[in-house]
């Protein structure tokens, strides 16, 4: 905060403002705005709360940010606001790390069970009033690779291990003895070891290093019986090459919650492909998640107002909060 002045906070929220902002409104001049009004709201603002975390409006309005000190985004991923001008500025960037960890982990376990127990086909047969006995798969003992070793990846690893699965990780550095993954492989070498796994879960942050990491070479390296789950970012995947791999039988199925283009276009073959589960970017959205996001922001706003270190400070070079978060004053 700047001296003893009442700070000015711009809130990018679209048509629906965030709930439960009374505590913040008591300590700041709050300007709620949609994308079209963002340049005007940013002029003279000390902080920006990007509640509409899918919006791409911030880079276009950045020139109006003449005294901004802090930007908080209501998501774990920061790619919509991590543009060159922000990287090079002194503006502190924080995210909402921790809100969606357990919900996304539960989603991943759910789709793993859906594949193993063939729930989609059971529902189709039920609707057709067809009694067809089949055998299902066990998930205990199956090998899973979680690509992304941040908090969501760790929550996912713990839950899958509790279900009896054998979980490894993939991250920036290869290592052993990790408390949640045991072995962590180097993500830059994905095709070398993808063939060892029955399930591959994409949870990496979107950076220049990870964009398009799941391409034709990656899918060709997987087991023909493997299932691919993407709950990270749509741009981690080259969608056309995923479709080709599914059609060629290079992998057995995919559960996709995020896509390169959202909403997923109506003419995408993914909608109707067998053994593909599509959900509309909702894997982490549990009842009350919007209020929880505001609670996270409000707690950080209080720290910022008091000149205390912020939580969930993003390393703008890496594109995510480091494993040992570093506080920063606003």
Task: Provide an overview of this structure.
The structure is a single chain. This protein is of the alpha/beta class and about 325 residues long. It has 2 domains: about 10-100 and about 285-305, 3-Layer(aba) Sandwich (Rossmann fold); about 100-280, Rossmann fold (3-Layer(aba) Sandwich), CATH 3.40.50.720. The protein has helices at about 20-25, 40, 55-60, 85-90, 100-115, 120-125, 150-160, 190-195, 215-220, 240-250, 290-305; strands at about 10, 30-35, 45-50, 70-75, 90-95, 145, 165-170, 175-180, 180-185, 200, 225-230, 255, 275-280. The strands form 2 sheets. Strands 8-9-7-6-10-11-12-13 form an 8-stranded mixed beta sheet, covered by helices on one side. A 5-stranded parallel beta sheet has the order 2-1-3-4-5. The longest helix is centred in the C-terminal third of the chain and has 17 residues, at about 290-305. It is elongated. Mean pLDDT is about 95; it is low at about 325-330.
